[in-house]
Amino acid sequence: MNWSQQDPDIAIALQTLVEQDGIEFLPKALRVDTLVMKLSFKSKLLIVKSSSRGRICFAVGRAPNTDSSNLAAASVATDTCGFIQVKDHLETNIPGIWALGDINAGSQCTQMSLNDYRIIKANLIDEGNHSTRDRLVPSCLFIDPELAHVGLTDLCVIVFCLFVKHKGS
Known about the structure:
Elements: H1 8-19, E1 36-42, E2 45-50, H2 110-124, E3 138-141, E4 147-150, H3 154-168
Antiparallel strand pairs: 1-2, 3-4
């Protein structure tokens, strides 16, 4: 399992914890696009009826709710997934149009959406110059027990130090 924002020792502990709940990890599984026909719950189990046979691996993520916004009519740029592209001050490629929360490609959590609002309010109403640069982004994993941290992981520090050492030589 790739717990991408975690140090390897934390990732191994997390995987072990989740496996104790009966979840099996198949790291070499191939991605196969499949059509989900029906989702239902029975005794705390998620039952999936699909168009394919065999095992199904779920990767849970978020998609922006921008399909019905007709962004093309306003020439607002989106990425290949439909997220609105923004600059550091959360303004889109069109002056006067800003995007905040889970419709831009930023961090997908409530706290960051609130911070996006504060940036836009400060800049539009309070005549500030706030941006997303250098803001601290929490990493939260809602498991039992919950896991969260802010700042660099051990691995990030090692990589950064190696980069600085390489640049200095």
